[in-house]
Amino acid sequence: MSPAAESPQSTDPKATYSLVVVSNRLPVDFEVTEDGTESWRTSPGGLVTALQPLMRSSDGAWVGWPGVADRSFAPFVNDGISIVPVRLSGAELEDYYEGFSNDTIWPLYHDVIAPPSFHREWWEAYVRVNRRFAEEAAAAASTGATVWVHDYQLQLVPRMLREARPDLVIGFFNHIPFPPYGIYAQLPWRKQILDGLLGADLIGFQRAADAGNFTRAVRRLYGYPTRGVAIDVPGHSGVHRRVVAKHFPISIDARSYEELARRPEVQERARQIREDLGNPKTILLGVDRLDYTKGIAHRIKAFGELLEDGSVSVEDVTLVQVASPSRERVGPYIALRDEIELAVGRLNGDYSTISHTAISYHHHGYPREEMVALYLAADVMLVTALRDGMNLVAKEYVAVRFDRDGVLVLSEFAGAADELKQAVLINPHDIDGLKAAILRAIAMPRQERLRRMRALRRKVFDNDVAAWSTSFLRTLTEGAAVRPGIPDVLATALRDVTSTGTLLVALDFDGTLAPHVDNPEDARAVNGTHDAVQRLLDQDGVRVAFVSGRALVSLQHVSQPQSDVLLTGSHGIEVQLDTPEIELDLVAAELEQLDTLAQVLERVSGGVAGTWIERKPAGLALHTRLATPLAAQSAQKEAREQLSVLLPGLTVREGKNVIEFAVRSSTKGDALERLRLHTGADHVFYAGDDLTDEDAFAVLGEGDLGLKIGAGASLAGYRVRGPDEVPLVLGMIADFRDAAAETTSQAGA
Fold first, then answer.
1. Which residues pair with 244 in a beta bridge?
2. Is 406 left (phi over 0), alpha (psi -120 to 50) or beta?
3. Do the Cβ atoms of 160 and 137 come closer than 8 Å?
4. Which helix (H) or strand (E) holds 138?
5. Strand-strand pairing, 38-42 and 202-205
6. This protein's superkingdom (predicted)?
């Protein structure tokens, strides 16, 4: 009998959950002791650490393979997480996992360092197993649940889930690189994989370059329009679905590593390791799975040449190499092990002495405590990956070094190099450059080591695994948590509010009528908007207005409004209400303040890549959409602090990736009140997506209707998913007005 069946924590197999994580392996390992006792042990991985608290608090379930072939287990609860095991046969593991996943996708996605194999029977098994995972996830997910699928073994699951359960919010994270198109195009099933991934609402990658490679592949193979991180995927009904492909660099539970490193017994073990190695002046350390992507042979070659040319001596410098077993039944891995062990044996035979070993080589894994002791003992950490999605070993070494000592030598081809720029960055293919970097690390002055390690630790601790998971899920749920289409409750409310009396339909532009884009002047309303607005303008007793934070000239340019549309810009400071002229009146003192404001923001923006200034009649906006999150936060903080001293009376308004400063106070709420007065409206319909639109929702009264575009807290009573739904809503308003007018006409007859 399985332990799940025996356990008092067994769960109802028909139970459903609001958060479902799907990965090839479960967060628990199945174990059988010598006496035949069966049990489950929680895996020590960073992903489990990051998601465990969230899943406990949000009624979550984890779907995955339990690590045992040809065996079924009932769902059960382990350490507060509901576990849903997926059965796989031995043949499926051979074809789906060892075959397609690890002998086709893995080498292809790692730049063909080893040649990939393409076999149709492997692909068929991959499809079959992905469908089984998708079916289990769909059965476990409650209505409107969030499902987060992980890694290259399950790239077809998002599309399968989308087709089976369109109500779900689906995220996918790719833990390995995504290759450039020239490499990816070799895959015979290249379009099927892309289509599978595009079933997700959010696709996460380790590096910005990986997300860019994916987006370019979509453009080449499908021709779908892309803007920045957004991809517009056509739906069956003709309505486009927005998919976001963005980088979310994964990390570790940094604090738990430091806590281990501070334990006296671990520090004593580190001291003992140095003693056992003969107390060399410098210990070099490599920690890797035995994989051809890790550059272990390059590292050993460089160290061997340093010994050969006398740059280092075996008495002074020792290389410790931990190479944990990996995929030992796959041909290229068998050959790699033979190659590495032959190279180690040759160097040790040539250079080791009775008391000192050139390379201390270990082909097995160690518990975390032993690894932390090794990190503490090592003076130089060598990460020489030829291609790596992230490489968490680099971050583990940094987290452990609470003494702020040690040097990290890091391959520029590892994802970690994008963040850990104070490491000694190297090209592992350049053996001379690698040798020079090792010598530089050995001889690095203490003050430089401390300075570099302080900066590295700040980066790792500020961006730990909890921040990674929070960032991904926040982006997923805020961008896609609202179901597509028009909810029935909204349709009923629209009929009640808009079918009688004089109606003002007031609409924000960016994020409401038009998707957000990197360059504001490229924004355009989604298809169908112009016709829907015209239908409303043709109605008796209906006025339409665009209410924007943009300068009015910019609003006119991007929205191309019909002549009867009322316009308010700069949050109501500019208006064009049934006149050809734009109304605006600033006094001399306000104009002087504008000049000072411009000087400050130009100085701030000039020092931060990815930011720019938008000039408005009564203020300026600092846009940070293209900056890194930390740089954006820093730029906005600096602008606020400087201007609070120089111009303390400014109105400050924050939006999505933008902060605005105005010399005259006005809000979209003020603009909406002015429009209501101008039109004499009995009822107001207002639609908006941003924080600034909350001012407009706040002034809506009884008999009015507010519509929030997208997810997030709001004063609006109703919401739709994105700009694509807005023309449909406007069309419904026109339909209800037509129906009401026809009823009135028939009654009069």
1. 202, 230
2. left
3. no
4. helix 120-140
5. unpaired
6. Bacteria
Same domain, 103 and 218: yes
206 neighbors 237 (Cβ within 8 angstroms): no
pTM: 0.68
Q: Which of 662, 689, 705 is the last residue of a domain?
A: 662
What is the count of structural domains for the chain? 4
- In degrees, to the nearest 5, what angle opens at C-alpha 685 toward C-alphas 679 and 689? 125
- Contact of 374 with 366, CB cutoff 8 Å: yes
| Residue 2 domain flag | no
The pLDDT of residue 6 is: 37
Element spanning 516, H or E: none
Beta pairing partners, 287:
322
- Encode pLDDT of 471-530 as tens digits: 888 778 754 456 678 888 889 889 988 888 899 999 999 999 998 877 888 889 999 999
User: Do residues 500 and 593 both lie within one domain?
Assistant: no
What's the CATH number where 78 sits? Answer: 3.40.50.2000
* Burial of 585: CB neighbours in 10 Å, binned 0-12, 13-18, 19+: exposed
Helix axes 254-261, 368-377, angle to 10 degrees: 70
Q: Which residues contact 206 (CB under 8 A, 6 or more apart)?
A: 174, 175, 176, 177, 247, 248, 249, 250, 389, 390, 415
Backbone torsions φ then ψ of 224, nearest 5 degrees = -70, 140
Pairing of strands 28-32, 38-42: antiparallel
Is 399 part of any domain? Answer: yes
pLDDT tens, residue by residue, 162-173: 999 988 889 999
One domain, residues 593 and 570: no
Same domain, 514 and 600: no
Quick one: pLDDT at residue 244?
Answer: 84
Amino acid identity, residue 392? Answer: L
Pair 692, 641 in one domain? no
Residue 402 belongs to domain spanning: 260-468
Q: Does residue 210 share a domain with residue 268?
A: no
Q: For residue 105, give the amino acid letter.
A: I
Beta bridge mates, 382: 409
Other Cβ atoms closer than 10 A to 556: 17
Integer-rounded Cα radius of gyration of the chain: 30
Question: 48 and 93, same structural domain?
Answer: yes
pLDDT tens readout for residues 555-570: 999 999 999 999 998 8
Question: Taking Cα atoms as reference points, which of 128, 145, 121 lies closest to residue 60?
Answer: 145
CATH number, residue 705: 3.40.50.1000
Does residue 41 sit within a domain?
yes
Q: Which amino acid is at 582?
A: I
Biggest CA pair distance of the chain: 112
For 685-744, what is each residue's pLDDT tens digit?
999 998 788 889 888 888 899 999 987 667 787 888 889 999 999 999 999 999 888 877
Residue 317 host element (H or E): strand 317-324
Torsion of the alpha carbons at 563, 564, 565 and 571, rounded to the nearest 10: 90
The residue among 106, 161, 107, 152 whose CA lies nearest residue 131 is 161
Question: Which whole number is the average pLDDT over 456-466?
Answer: 92
Q: Is residue 651 part of a domain?
A: yes
Q: What sign does the CA torsion over 198, 631, 636, 451 have? A: positive
Q: What is the mean pLDDT of residues 428-438?
A: 97
The Cα–Cα gap between 247 and 250 comes to: 9
**Sheet strands side by side (includes 380-383):** 359-362, 317-324, 282-289, 380-383, 407-411, 424-426
Kindly state whether residues 291 and 180 are assigned to the same domain. Answer: no
Instruction: Give the integer Cα–Cα distance in Å for 363 and 371.
Output: 14
